[in-house]
């Protein structure tokens, strides 16, 4: 820890002067939100200095930016200013607290926010400014976003890169850094909005896209921030849902809007990158829940296996046991024209076999599944996976391919020994929180619904990178 020898106080007069001169500065009001909204220093932003802020936000604040803390009484901001200086930050506190301020006051909330749903519907109109560090940005991002780390936003030359002909939306994992970025931009005379709840909330937006309209209807439900895909198959107003996602309410909204009834719910496998909403959706809708008999679950359901068939409406669903990603992975063939492949076969790649730590054994099963089962389906069969990569472009708004197109994917034209060697040698990062997500989906641990957004943050990482 650094030894602090400087005077940490700043007077009302000096703060007013610094703000008038547009000096690079962050002014944080540490009082309660209610007090802040009633009255606050014009140009300040409300802040909470809790454990999360100390761990995740303080290290991201540039050391060369002056920070002024305001509280009432001053003791609170004094203590935190001392702590910030020990972190190496240039922090001060308003002498004699908020009541000493003699400058302009404002009321209400500061900063403009945009919800994830609002952003999704106006994406093309925005300049997406991601203020995370570059290593975080490289992991996953909203397509089209531009990365300028928070620490660089206090550099006038960097600010010149920000356009003035689009609305700016600042982005970070939870919204805190983005809020600070918005404050920094406003100090430079640049207006912006903060993505409320950050990428965590962005990952929870579900977007329905109708892919097939007749004789059956197929609605692809896209978790746009995560690259997860769920499907609703409707025949004669009776619907089957495959690999449902959170939030459950989106499915019941679609059920009501479209006039169908969800009667059956299937999961292709125990997912490792996102939390299945199958149990909750079954409970809410009264639908029957069907799961793979080849994977161990710690709760009751209807367990199904290879060649099982289910009628709904005027159509039929046939179960294929397609191991390789997991031992119990299933695919579902509908009307012998459509196949829902889970994480075995994607638009751009194949499922990775190493998430259960048996890569070589699972790769042999993966090869057999692909060549002896899925690629034996008619060439015109439409393939609907449960994920897509972040660099894959949709077709008419949806992510799907055909068996014929799948045959041209990398590594599907090479002998089995070479295939196994290549796949096993391809070591990739695991999905974030994957062990806990698997445990939740298996039923080993109880799901806390409020934890879903944080559990699911990050890329899906379920495909083999065959590049």
TrEMBL record:
Organism (species): Candidatus Nitrosomaritimum aestuariumsis
Name of this chain's protein: MBL fold metallo-hydrolase
Upper lineage: Archaea, Nitrososphaerota, Nitrososphaeria, Nitrosopumilales, Nitrosopumilaceae
